[in-house]
Amino acid sequence: MVTAMDDLFGATELPPASAPADAPLAERMRPKALGDVVGQSHLTGPEGAIGRMVAAGRLSSMILWGPPGTGKTTIARLLADAVGLRFAAISAVFSGVADLKKAFAEARDHARTGKRTLLFVDEIHRFNRAQQDGFLPYVEDGTVTLVGATTENPSFELNAALLSRAQVLILHRLDAAALAELLDRAEQVEARRLPMTPDARAALIASADGDGRFLLNQAETLWSVDLPEQLDPAALGAFLQRRVAVYDKDREGHYNLISALHKSLRGSDPQAALYYLARMLTAGEEPLYVLRRLTRFASEDIGLADPQALVQCLAAKDAYDFLGSPEGELAIVQACLYLATAPKSNAAYRAQKAAWKAARETGSLMPPAHILNAPTKLMKDIGYGKGYAYDHDTEAGFSGSNYWPEGMARQDFYQPTGRGHEKRIAERLAYWEDLRHGRSTRSD
Questions:
Q1: What CA–CA distance (Å, rounded) separates 153 from 167?
Q2: Both ends of the chain: CA-CA distance in Å?
Q3: What are the residues whose beta carbons fall under 8 Å from the beta carbon of 426, sequence distance 6 or more?
């Protein structure tokens, strides 16, 4: 379990196995073996990818992808020890081309003496594309076994060439059981219990949001103060700063949550939609961005099944503009719930795609002459507007004329569903189709 950020300024050798007695709790609790890493048994266990590689005594290059505080740095260090590789580390935050060249040169020197190198690259996604390409020849010729760590989606942030040479392993966010085990271990190391009630202990675990490092730092803060009595959840919240949810508005967390909100709305689950809306807004998302996405949803996934959906979103935008935060956020909630509980139809969305495709393919076809305006005598003489049927002059208010270009068959881009308001629209279209073919005399 990774429990402290390493100072990775350039390449460095593996530090002593035992941390000093006065080191931070997180450092003193570093696991000494892969079996001690909590929460990642799907990778480190006997059947996991890492477990199998260690058992075989051979490592492939890999990218460890996971949230902060889930064990990426510690696993890399323990891997080197488990298969007898020299460990060197650099951080993409603090390192540049010169540091990379030095790390590769040192790895080659050690390789000549028979000692291969595991090069751990923290925050590897922060290297630009050219720097990432610089790893390729050294990975290919075996100079280094690359272990990169990232909190960002590798498919977005890393070169395809680099990804093709490394296995992506996903570390899980630590669940409540794993975090509870960390606290138990911390109490054993400190030889004392945390000064809190069971409910406060559960609240502390929940506040860590899956980050073991954060949890241990909070525990150390509690032990650093001589508290007169056990803390309940309210007292704990007042004593410790509340952790802000991990959420980067321009990275994967942003897209994951907006996708979850959109899918929950489409699935007509107002409870889940409200949860993801809360996740976004409490994490600092711009409310107007959320409103833009809700407005798009109203047209894409509801459309004419409930025409009021779009009106509700625009009204929520006006209300938020008028009230601001936090009062105006209730209008966003109202719009969200309206969308989730409205009948769904993507008929308008499908109609747009089909119509746009047809327009691109037939863009040069002229409309029929009878529906063209004839502002000049010449245009009238050549047939513009001739034979146009004024629909309001008919008994049904519907002439049934052909409005399609000559040489293009009639298309059915918009096909309403039988849900919500679209059910009535479908009935009206069917009625007009009957009139068009002289099959009906009933009125709309």
A1: 13
A2: 70
A3: 416, 417, 418
Over the stretch 18-49, which tens digit does the pLDDT of each residue have? 566 678 888 888 888 888 899 999 999 999 99
Residue 157 vs residues 44, 67, 120, 154, 411: alpha-carbon distances, Å: 25, 15, 17, 5, 43
Q: Are 92 and 124 in contact (CB under 8 A)?
A: yes
Look at residues 32, 47, 79, 64 and name the one whose alpha carbon lies nearest to residue 171. Answer: 64
CA distance 442 to 431: 8
Alpha carbon separation from 416 to 300, 350, 412 (Å, rounded): 13, 10, 10
User: Are 373 and 385 spatial neighbours (Cβ–Cβ below 8 Å)?
Assistant: yes
Query: Can you give the length of the chain in residues?
Result: 444
At which residue do the structure tokens 């559960």 appear?
A: 202
Nearest-angstrom CA–CA distance, 45 and 55: 10
pLDDT digits (tens, 9 = 90+) for 291-302: 999 999 999 999
H or E element, residue 121: strand 117-122
**How many other CB atoms sit within 10 Å of the CB of residue 21?**
6
Q: SS3 of 285, please?
A: coil
Which own/partner pairs from 428-437 qualify as long-range (CB within 8 Å, at least 24 positions apart)? 432/398, 432/400, 435/396, 435/398, 435/400, 436/400, 437/400
Q: What are phi and psi of 86, to 5 degrees?
A: -70, 140
The Cα–Cα gap between 167 and 76 comes to 14
75/66 Cα distance (integer angstroms): 12
Distance, CA of 249 to CA of 261 (rounded, Å): 15
Residue with tokens 């300024």: 9
